[in-house]
Specification:
single chain, 459 residues, 39% helix, extended
Length: 459
């Protein structure tokens, strides 16, 4: 049976199924599809075939990489399905055709077998760690942005077992507070309103090395989510805000960051503080009194970021934000102390001690800094002792190797010469006189004559 599947029902794309496919799913826009095909004119003339090349054709659906009839027809096919698409000129190569094989204004037939497909890669690094397969199209043209309030329905599966099924509302970027895995949050920025999709999420964007024991999910496990975006309210775009509005938003994010920090949710606190930096990190737009308020707010934010990174054992980042704080407030006591902590954690005790000493110059009664100086000096002492021992062992090893080389040289000399050298050495002549410079440079000429007199042989 032939069916008109063209959007306008103008018989532009007719489909005849030769072999039914598997399941109910069909590929959606963004999927990477693999097919075999044979293309013919209406008179049966073959103009192209992937089968003859023994190589399937692979393309991304929905990106205008193929003719319009293929975009429409393949989106209706199930895995393993074989169908014939009859394509009117305006859904194929139009009036110009595609010389020399396809004449102008040609209607074409394609026998297509869909071998399979993979989802749209929406992972940040494009490493297929978050794969999205659309099951139902959305009804809107816009997508949620960072900070948007989203209303979603989630069904989480591991090893075909459902571990969660719920409705949840949260702000994008803060999903961790509601038990939302990072992969879902990242993917939602590609959803349209009302869209339903399956997400295949690798462990690093799911539950990671810790797993989720309460859900019987082991470490390093990949999971699947069915996600429906039921509605959302976009967050204000940064470009649309004036300086006063940016300051107000920054204050909101800072307060959220502080609340998350108090709950030991350091990752979320970091995300909130980084949003403050995103909103007011550049001071070029702030003037007069507003600039003073901005500087105070961003300084506090950098100090808090440094503390969060220290708590998370991310010491390089902690040091970075201490430096940013010191750019704004040179000689800042907290920034120096936290940079000292970061340097100490990075096993740079000699550098750390300088930061703690600078703290004492600012506040001589800072007991914590004094204690840290003692810790640093003790570590430096231990490190130097280790280095001394290491170098001593190294020199002993080199000396042993030198002795072994000399002994090997002696073993290779004639017996009579070894005896002479063993008795007199290379720096002294028999009879007690010192060796000449020539003899020192040419020790191998020292040999006993037939009478055993120890005189030089004639050269």
């Amino acid at each position: 049976m032939t069916t008109d599947i063209s959007p306008e029902h103008d018989r532009g794309v007719l489909k005849e199924i030769l072999k039914m496919g598997e399941g109910e799913e069909t590929p959606s826009s963004g999927c990477i599809v693999k097919v075999h095909y044979t293309g013919t004119l209406l008179d049966g003339t073959k103009f192209d075939s992937s089968r003859e090349r023994s190589e399937p054709f692979v393309f991304e659906l929905g990106q205008s990489r193929v003719i319009k009839a293929w975009e429409i027809g393949i989106a209706t096919m199930k895995k393993g399905e074989i169908a014939i698409l009859t394509c009117a000129p305006n859904y194929a190569y139009g009036k110009p055709g595609s010389p020399p094989r396809i004449p102008p204004d040609a209607t074409l037939k394609f026998e297509i077998e869909i071998l399979g497909w993979s989802g749209m890669d929406v992972s940040p690094d494009k490493d297929a760690s978050i794969e999205k397969i659309q099951l139902k199209k959305g009804s809107d043209l816009t997508s949620p942005n960072d900070g948007a309030l989203v209303n979603v329905h989630l069904v989480g599966k591991y090893d075909d077992t459902v571990f969660e099924d719920r409705d949840v509302q949260f702000n994008l970027g803060e999903g961790e507070d509601d038990g939302i895995v990072k992969g879902v949050e990242i993917a939602l920025e590609k959803f349209k309103n009302g869209e339903l999709a399956r997400l295949n999420i690798k462990s690093k964007y799911a539950f990671g090395r810790e797993g989720k024991p309460e859900f019987n999910i082991p470490a390093d496990a990949n999971v699947t989510y069915l996600v429906e975006l039921k509605g959302f309210e976009k967050a204000s775009d940064l470009w649309s805000l004036d300086t006063s509005q940016k300051m107000e938003q920054a204050k909101i994010f800072k307060e959220k960051g502080t609340n998350y920090f108090k709950q030991d949710k350091f990752n979320l606190a970091i995300e909130m503080y980084k949003k403050v930096d995103n909103y007011i990190g550049s001071d070029s737009d702030f003037k007069d009194e507003l600039k003073v308020k901005r500087d105070n707010l961003i300084l506090a934010t950098y100090l808090n970021l440094a503390l969060c990174y220290l708590k998370s054992d991310q010491n390089i980042q902690a040091k970075e934000f201490c430096n940013k704080a010191l750019d704004i407030s040179p000689g800042n006591e907290k920034a120096l102390f936290r940079r000292g902590q970061a340097n100490l954690a990075l096993t740079s005790a000699a550098i750390a001690v300088k930061d703690f000493e600078d703290v004492l110059k600012i506040e001589p009664k800072n007991i914590a800094a004094a204690k840290q100086i003692s810790v640093c000096k003790n570590l430096i002492k231990i490190q130097r002792a280790k280095e001394k021992k290491l170098y001593a062992n190294m020199f002993d090893k080199f000396a042993l190797e030198d002795r072994q080389k000399e002994e090997e040289k002696l073993r290779q000399l004639p017996d009579v010469m070894r005896g002479a050298l063993g008795e007199w050495g290379q720096e002294e002549r028999p009879g007690g006189r010192d060796a000449t410079a020539f003899e020192k440079e040419n020790p191998n000429i020292l040999m006993l004559n037939a009478n055993g007199t120890g005189e030089f042989q004639n050269m």
